[in-house]
Specification:
single chain, 346 residues, mainly alpha, two-stranded antiparallel ribbon
């Protein structure tokens, strides 16, 4: 079933193609404090120079960067980071969006080639030699990151970025085959295609944390990371659905739910919205169950968990500020929650 097929719910026939959707009210469900990093403007300016160096990104791609407002996202998600750490983090997030845009147009071999370049640059930042732009960018930010990141944060960053490339390779295969996975398989894959897990390692880096591996591997810490990942990722599927459906892209939870549950578009949006709200509730429940590892580790864990909460609230508000999902109407959509669907592209 494609997203444009008719669905029958009870005795009401849904038209083959809906004209609009109503978004769930996720912002009101999230009560965490939204804060901004004081280095936002400086970091945004420096990252722009870094990204555009040597004539990289021209025309529409350069315009899209300005509309992305990645510096705002980084500022909201890492509000307490010092300038050097915020700069590396903003460089990475900007580069990650660039990779995401590239992977949307990649086949399996293109994804593998990019993954090989990026991962070799991470595992061998001082020894790997390549003229590829993506490799140069990778080595540049990672050499700065390892100056102060703890060994555990470095390892988690590389491992989870490796998982990201494995998952986008599978996504490319599914896209080529026209496969819409079942919900359980999609969730497992999406937790890695989101790119959130390396961003969680950057919380450790940005806040100068050195949390023991056994603490980071504790089930409650893992569950908190998963709940935050689910909220950021599934809400992103709702917010990005309009643009993706216009391109016929089905790597999104909404068509997955429509296909599996046999429900219409708005019902699927509501279904995913409820899952998002449940993920916030799950985060709060897990947070109330945090054990103690002693004063110093507890202090660092609290900062890390606050960092996950910053990502939850920051990503929700940023989604209506960036032009990536709603163009220049984001604030209007935030107020009305009504999205007029784009026509399918030729």
């Amino acid at each position: 079933m494609s997203v444009s097929n008719a669905a029958v719910t009870g005795s009401t026939t849904v038209s083959p193609r809906a004209k609009k959707i109503v978004l769930p009210n996720l912002v009101s469900h999230c009560t965490y404090q939204l804060r901004f990093n004081r280095h936002r403007k400086q970091v945004t300016t420096e990252t722009k120079k870094w990204l555009f160096k040597d004539g990289n990104l021209m025309g529409k791609k350069r315009d899209a960067y300005h509309g992305l407002k990645c510096g705002l996202l980084t500022s909201m998600c890492y509000p307490d980071a010092a300038y050097p750490q915020l700069r590396v983090t903003n460089d990475f997030l900007t580069y990650l969006f660039h990779l995401d845009n590239l992977s949307d147009d990649m086949d399996n071999s293109g994804t593998l080639t990019t993954a090989d370049e990026v991962l070799n640059s991470l595992y061998h930042p001082h020894a790997w030699r390549s003229s590829a732009r993506v490799g140069k960018m990778t080595r540049d930010y990672y050499k700065r990151l390892i100056l102060t990141a703890s060994p555990g944060a470095q390892q988690r960053f590389i491992e989870t970025f490796d998982f990201f490339f494995q998952s986008v390779t599978q996504q490319a295969l599914d896209r080529a085959a026209g496969v819409i996975p079942d919900l359980e398989s999609y969730i497992a894959l999406r937790r890695d295609t989101s790119g959130c897990k390396p961003c969680w390692a950057l919380i450790e880096y940005a806040c100068n944390l050195d949390i023991p591996d056994e603490v980071m591997d504790h089930p409650t810490i893992r569950n908190l990371g998963e709940a935050a990942n689910d909220l950021v990722t599934w809400s992103n599927d709702i917010f990005s659905y309009n643009v993706e459906q216009s391109k016929g892209d089905t790597h999104n939870m909404i068509p997955v739910v429509m296909n599996q549950e046999g429900i219409d578009l708005q019902s699927a949006v509501d279904f995913v919205g409820d899952m998002c709200k449940q993920s916030i509730d799950r985060f709060d429940e897990e947070r109330s169950r945090l054990p103690s590892w002693g004063p110093e580790i507890d202090r660092q864990v609290d900062i890390y968990v606050d960092g996950l909460a910053n990502w939850i609230v920051g990503s929700l508000h940023w989604s209506f500020e960036t032009e990536r999902y709603f163009g220049k109407t984001g604030r209007q959509v935030k107020a009305s929650r009504v999205v007029e669907l784009l026509p399918l592209r030729a």
